[in-house]
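Recall that a protein's primary structure is simply its ordered list of amino acids. Everything else, from secondary elements to tertiary packing, is in principle encoded there. The following example makes that idea concrete.
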Amino acid sequence: MTHLNLPDQSQGARRSSLFQIPINFKPAPRGSSHVSFIRDPHHDDTLHEDSFHRRPKKVYYENTYQMDPPERFKAEQVSDIIREVLNSSLEETTYEPMACSILSKTIAQDIKLRVEELDFKRYKLISWVTIGEKKDQGVRIGSRCVWDQDRDNFATATFENTHIYAVGMMYAVYYE
């Protein structure tokens, strides 16, 4: 174990609460690790030393007791948006696994942004797009969710051309 030459505490130097590293200390280029904790100086001179250790005040919100959304999620309107985005984005697309993977994320984001413009208040929106190659096979896509059937809803639309198929879904989950 090596000892570090520490500055003399009696000369008025500030003492760290964890440990001190000498001013002229230079870490070894390789093979060693050192941990240091440095507190950034604060520009406000009026703060006391104890203010750095205080936790921020917790904000309390009052309950709204609003059990129903101000406006219901309109699945038919959202299905039209999904269909438009799928048709415009995939009209001349052929299947390439990596490109379709990136494209499905981009399309899902586009759908979500378009639906957010409808401003369904108090709904959490989840957009999901699947793109696959069309090769004389049958495909069945399903999903399971635990939700409130009176308030939560979803919209879906499909697209297909001679090379690919695509399914777009938007889930709207009401949060109180």
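DSSP finds two helices and three strands in the chain. Residues 32-37 have pLDDT under 50 and may be disordered.
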